[in-house]
Design goal:
The structure holds two protein chains of two kinds. Chain A contains six helices and seven strands; from the N terminus they run αααβαββαββαββ. Chain A is α+β, with helices and mostly antiparallel strands. In chain A, strand 6 and strand 7 form a beta hairpin. By secondary structure, chain B is α/β, with parallel strands linked by helices. In chain B, the strands form two sheets. In chain B, strands 6-7-8-3-9-10 form a six-stranded mixed beta sheet, sandwiched between helices. In chain B, strands 2-1-4-5 form a four-stranded antiparallel beta sheet, with helices on one face. In chain B, strand 9 and strand 10 form a beta hairpin. Chain B is globular and about 55 Å long. The two termini of chain B are about 10 Å apart. The chains are: A alpha+beta, B alpha/beta. The interface between A and B is medium-sized, with 23 and 24 residues.
């Protein structure tokens, strides 16, 4: 009799233990399944197409659906991007193509001015010349602003020599600086940065262009290089008119122009372009300025591949 | 889209007879991907505000809404999980665990949540923050700037809704500060990460897309204007 009781108790205990173990087992398996699913979802959020096995498992079915979601959202995005790109390239094509005949007109007007003309004709020719210069400026700005559309700036970063970027950018403004007798002083450096050479040069060129444009004659523009642990800083200091404090955050916005410079030509694209280019390659831009004393712009470029 | 909002947030402390108004009706909203700096002198209530936003302290009245959820109504246990999943913290004194190496420190909050870390994503962060060669170093072998970069990597690793940074460069020299802040800004841009930073230093605040000034528990400048938003 006693033996039976002990046996029953033992069997019951065994059953309970088995149940617990089975539950634990399934719990662990569920956990693993969820874990796997979570990882898959995370990858899908990142827009990644995942390998799926072609079998009858639920796992494969879930992965298949996830891939479809990723593909559909990718397709929609691609279509929208393609449409936008078509329009953008149309604008930039047209503005480029208009500039060629415009340059020719300016050339012919120039030739005409050198001819012997009576006073009235000369007056008219001069007017034509003036207007075509204006038109040329607007076309240039239009080309620039079509670049400034974020998506047109496609940055391909690589390890680049900072000195080369500085030298090319300085060449871009050499003539304008020479005209105003502005001295551009630059540091030598052997530093490398991870950036798109063409766009970074364009950005630095824009800063230098501003520095020359808003500085008095016979002043100095300094270009220094400061190495940080993660960044290379190109610092441009001028002795120009400066930017008021309340405007220092706004000058990087598209189409923003200070009231103080409304007499100078420009559309408020340059600094916006600078900020976009730098942000796209893992850098940033900083500005310090005192009205009447000058402006310091710092371009921070990444040192690491990212 | 607003990822963070506060509505008429108040925190009063009773000190015997006197009532101290640490926060006195703060309403602000932060857009997704924004880099916001909260500036104020010590005693202005900026640390209290940050603690409220991170669910480290409970307000006397008012609401804190993170990612659409009112956290002032959560229980203590809910708050703990909420903090682990939604908030990344970066502190002045780094708060790294000294017995774990750099990589272990970074993936710790993910592991605490019972999830396997996504190695690829973590590697990407490590590389972006220039910690690739230091991955197996111990915290005490690193400089202050490097330690803060590890702390930033740890905050980024869980893909939180917001990163809250409490005087992140308080212990660093100005040169290293610039470096760490730059990384905060660029990684924020890269991952669309919302960052709220408090500081007493105006120069440091300049790095942010928007600045809010706090004085005696009230917003006295900046507010909800988006004049300098980073979009």
């Amino acid at each position: 009799m006693n033996g039976y009781i002990v046996l029953t108790v033992l069997m019951l205990a065994g059953c309970v233990l088995a149940c617990i173990l089975i539950k634990k087992y399934y719990q662990n398996r569920m956990e693993a399944v969820y874990q796997e699913l979570l990882l898959k979802l995370d990858r899908a959020i990142g827009g990644e197409i995942q390998d799926t096995a072609y079998d009858e498992s639920m796992d494969a079915a879930v992965a298949e659906r996830l891939n479809r979601i990723v593909q559909i959202s990718g397709m929609n995005q691609e279509r929208a991007e393609r449409e936008r790109d078509t329009i953008k390239s149309l604008i930039s094509d047209v503005s480029h193509q208009v500039r060629t005949p415009l340059t020719n007109i300016m050339l012919y007007v120039g030739l005409l001015q050198e001819q012997e003309l009576d006073r009235n004709t000369l007056l008219l020719v001069n007017k034509i010349q003036k207007q075509s210069v204006k038109l040329d400026f607007f076309m240039k700005e239009l080309v620039k602003s079509s670049y400034a559309e974020q998506e047109i700036i496609s940055v391909h970063s690589e390890m680049a020599e900072v000195e080369e970027i500085i030298n090319t950018a300085c060449q871009m403004v050499e003539l304008a600086a020479l005209k105003k007798k502005i001295d551009i002083v630059k540091d030598g450096t052997e530093a490398l940065c991870y950036a798109d050479k063409k766009w970074t040069t364009e950005a630095l060129g824009n800063i230098l262009d501003n520095a020359v444009k808003y500085s008095p004659e016979a002043s100095q523009v300094k270009v220094n290089v400061i190495p940080y642990e993660s960044f290379i800083c190109i610092q441009i200091t001028d002795q120009g008119i400066g930017i008021r404090e309340e405007e220092q955050g706004m000058v990087f916005e598209r189409f923003y122009r200070s009231k103080d410079v409304s007499s100078e030509p420009g559309f408020g694209i340059g600094l916006y372009l600078v900020r976009e280019v730098l942000a796209k390659q893992g850098g940033y831009v900083k500005i310090k300025s005192e009205i009447g004393k000058g402006t310091t712009v710092q371009l921070y470029l990444s040192r690491y591949k990212s | 889209m607003n990822i963070l909002e506060t509505e008429n947030l108040k925190k009063y402390y009773d000190m015997g007879e006197i009532q101290v108004k640490a926060l006195d009706g703060i309403s602000l909203s932060v857009k997704k991907g924004e880099f916001l700096a909260i500036v104020g002198t010590s005693g202005s209530g900026k640390s209290t505000l940050l603690h409220m936003l991170g669910g480290l302290d409970i307000p006397t009245s008012g609401k804190v809404i993170v990612d659409g959820k009112d956290i002032s109504k959560m229980t203590k246990d809910e708050l703990t999980i909420f903090r682990r999943r939604k908030i990344g913290f970066v502190f002045q004194n780094y708060n790294l665990l000294p017995l774990m190496n750099v990589y272990e420190n970074i993936v710790l909050p993910i592991k605490l949540d019972g999830i396997k870390p996504d190695r690829k994503y973590v590697e990407q962060i490590v590389e972006m923050l220039g910690l690739k060669e230091k991955k197996y170093a111990m915290p005490n072998q690193l400089s202050g700037g490097q330690q803060q970069r590890v702390a930033l990597a740890r905050a980024l690793a869980t893909k939180p809704a917001i990163i809250l940074a409490d005087e992140p460069t308080g212990n660093l020299d100005s040169r290293t500060s610039q470096d760490v802040l730059g990384l905060m800004k660029t990684t924020g841009q890269r991952f669309g990460q919302t960052i709220v930073m408090i500081t007493h230093n105006d120069e440091i605040a300049q790095m942010a897309g928007r600045i809010i000034r706090l004085e005696d528990g009230k917003i006295c400048g900046g507010g909800n204007g988006y004049a300098e938003s980073e979009e």
